[in-house]
């Protein structure tokens, strides 16, 4: 038996041995694609493929047809994906005599047919696409790539898939597309496929948020749930109440209204909604740094003071200001983890409760419902964490979207009462839980046994949550990826389309993790016991 003090050294020795063995194996065998698998993430709804390998012209051009052919979003999207596809094949080699210059390519143009003349981005916007990579008609041996869509956002999803079919070949120094001809008919399983980012516990610069949005688009996630403010800090500028961002950590860790608008516009060009969250009445201590009257007392700094008209006037002012920034129809009002006992221990609040014949739990309901009324008056649909549903489901506005987090079984209860629901069971889809492996995330099912088709439609989708108590710019992408990709495929791909068996999925997930790394995303090893840990030793990206 090992003495306790010897165990760390023993474990370290074992890990180093495993690393050495894996290095030997990888050097001996290398990584080979399993040609029976489809290396597209998330897996498309329907597809067929062949066995031919094509070359793609580095001067690939775009030909737009249809009502939506003039949209800037689509032209910028094509240029962005062209840079991704030809990242390694661009530039001039100093060894000109060794560089193989090809004059004839199989694919030199991609045609995109857009049937809608609207670029409005709303929940449930049509993201479907059909991708053809096939020989042209007649006796010509030329090939063509065609994406047919109803909206520009379907076109962006189709371009992402096309980019994943392309790979740089180091021998020919050209971009190749394998397994042609391709026919892919694809659409998302759920309309809401989200990632929560918490910028209160740690501040993230605007460019970092943009890089996260970019990485979301690679996995076809489409909602950034921006948990902007919380107890710890209030980094967002609110013009009507300029002292609110006195609650930021420092004057350098803030978001101007222009910053927030840039993020929303940037996300739209990737087909991604931004849902803001202003959590009330709890998680709001930072508000009182600039406006101390919001605190019930110095010893009770949250929940916000329910007795004062000023509290609700300020909330209405916040909502009015940020409604100009966030066009998405869903708006998150929080409502979780409210310490109502604090109210009962504050004399003037206790007297107000008595005068209004309320108990603290009644005041909690009063506050949540009043905040919902204000949000609805700004033409938002309110989203609340599940505590509000658990406490007073019968009083919630019928428009309420219930956001699950405490555990399983909430969405079935919510949809049974006619509410929409978002699945985020913290036991499997909280990314700050570093000991949750990718398999558990992948196997989590948002419908949770709901078999009635009309009730299934009330589950909007789900979201993985990146709470930032132990996350900042130095490690956020490693904590998000690649585990968020497991949820992304669960939310996009139909059950019938998903690969059978975790061994098969793991092979594909390794490949996608390496694709993320090639695109500059710091995705951590897939199979580490704790997420975001560095590799245990030397090996290929495709094995770790």
From TrEMBL:
Q: Which residues form the signal peptide?
A: 1-30
Glycoside hydrolase family 20 catalytic domain residues are: 190-494
Entry keyword annotation includes Hydrolase: yes
Q: Does the keyword Membrane apply?
A: no
- What EC number(s) does its UniProt record assign? 3.2.1.52
Q: Which CDD domains does its entry note? A: GH20_HexA_HexB-like
- The species is Gossypium tomentosum (Hawaiian cotton)
Residues of the active site are 337 (proton donor)
User: InterPro entries annotated for this entry?
Assistant: Beta_hexosaminidase_sua/sub, GH, Glyco_hydro_20_cat, Hex-like_dom2, HEX_eukaryotic_N
Q: Which family, according to UniProt?
A: Belongs to the glycosyl hydrolase 20 family.
Please give the catalytic activity noted in the UniProt record. Hydrolysis of terminal non-reducing N-acetyl-D-hexosamine residues in N-acetyl-beta-D-hexosaminides
Q: Its domain of life?
A: Eukaryota
Q: Which GO terms describe its cellular component?
A: membrane
Which enzyme class? hydrolase
List the Gene3D superfamilies hit by this protein, alphabetically.
Chitobiase/beta-hexosaminidase domain 2-like, Glycosidases
Alphabetically, which GO biological process terms does the record hold? carbohydrate metabolic process; glycosaminoglycan metabolic process
The record places domain Beta-hexosaminidase eukaryotic type N-terminal at: 40-165
Query: Per UniProt, which keywords does this protein have?
Result: Glycoprotein, Glycosidase, Hydrolase, Signal
Name of the molecule in the record = Beta-hexosaminidase
State the Gene Ontology terms under molecular function: beta-N-acetylhexosaminidase activity
């Amino acid at each position: 038996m090992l003495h306790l003090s010897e165990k760390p050294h023993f474990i370290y020795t074992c890990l180093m041995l495993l690393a050495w063995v894996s290095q030997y194996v990888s050097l001996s065998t290398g990584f080979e694609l399993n040609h029976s698998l489809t290396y597209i993430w998330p897996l498309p709804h329907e597809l067929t493929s062949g066995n031919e390998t094509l070359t793609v012209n580095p001067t690939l051009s775009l030909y737009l047809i249809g009502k939506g052919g003039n949209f800037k979003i689509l032209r910028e999207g094509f240029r962005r994906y062209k840079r991704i596809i030809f990242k390694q094949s661009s530039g001039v080699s100093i060894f000109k005599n060794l560089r193989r210059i090809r004059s004839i390519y199989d694919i030199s143009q991609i045609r995109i047919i857009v049937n809608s003349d609207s670029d409005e981005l709303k929940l449930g916007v049509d993201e479907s696409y059909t991708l053809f990579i096939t020989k042209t008609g007649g006796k010509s041996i030329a090939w063509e790539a065609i994406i047919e869509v109803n909206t520009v956002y379907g076109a962006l999803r189709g371009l992402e898939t096309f980019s994943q079919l392309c790979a740089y070949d180091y021998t020919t120094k050209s971009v190749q597309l394998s397994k042609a001809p391709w026919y892919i008919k694809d659409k998302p399983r759920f309309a809401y496929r989200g990632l929560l980012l918490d910028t209160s516990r740690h501040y993230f610069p605007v460019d970092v948020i943009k890089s996260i949005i970019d990485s979301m688009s690679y996995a076809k996630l489409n909602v950034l749930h921006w948990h902007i403010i919380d107890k710890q800090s209030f980094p967002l500028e609110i013009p009507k109440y300029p002292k609110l961002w006195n609650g930021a950590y420092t004057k350098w860790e803030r978001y101007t209204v222009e910053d927030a608008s840039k993020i929303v516009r940037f996300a739209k060009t990737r087909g991604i909604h931004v849902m803001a969250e202003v959590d009330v009445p709890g998680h709001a201590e930072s508000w009182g740094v600039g406006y101390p009257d919001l605190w019930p007392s110095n010893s009770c700094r949250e929940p916000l003071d329910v007795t004062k008209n000023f509290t609700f006037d300020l909330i209405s002012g916040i909502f009015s200001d940020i409604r100009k920034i966030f066009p998405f129809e869903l708006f998150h009002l929080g409502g979780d983890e409210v310490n109502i006992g604090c109210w009962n221990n504050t004399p003037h609040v206790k007297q107000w409760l008595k005068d209004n014949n309320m108990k603290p739990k009644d005041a909690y309901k009063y506050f949540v419902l009043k905040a919902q009324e204000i949000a609805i008056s700004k033409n938002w649909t309110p989203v609340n964490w599940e505590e509000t549903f658990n406490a007073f489901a019968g009083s919630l506005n019928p428009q309420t979207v219930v956001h699950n987090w405490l555990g399983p079984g909430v969405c079935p209860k919510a949809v049974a009462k006619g509410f929409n629901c978002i699945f985020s069971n913290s036991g499997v889809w909280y990314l700050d839980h570093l000991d949750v492996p990718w398999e558990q995330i992948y196997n989590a099912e948002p419908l949770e046994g709901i078999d009635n088709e009309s009730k299934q439609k009330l589950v909007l989708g789900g979201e993985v949550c990146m709470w930032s108590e132990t996350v900042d710019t130095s490690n956020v992408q490693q904590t998000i990826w690649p585990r968020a990709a497991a949820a992304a495929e669960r939310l996009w791909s139909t059950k019938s389309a998903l690969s059978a068996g975790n061994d098969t999925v793991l092979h594909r997930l390794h490949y996608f993790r390496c694709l993320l790394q090639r695109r500059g995303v710091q995705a951590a090893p897939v199979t580490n016991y704790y997420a975001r840990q560095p590799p245990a030793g030397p090996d290929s990206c495709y094995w770790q």
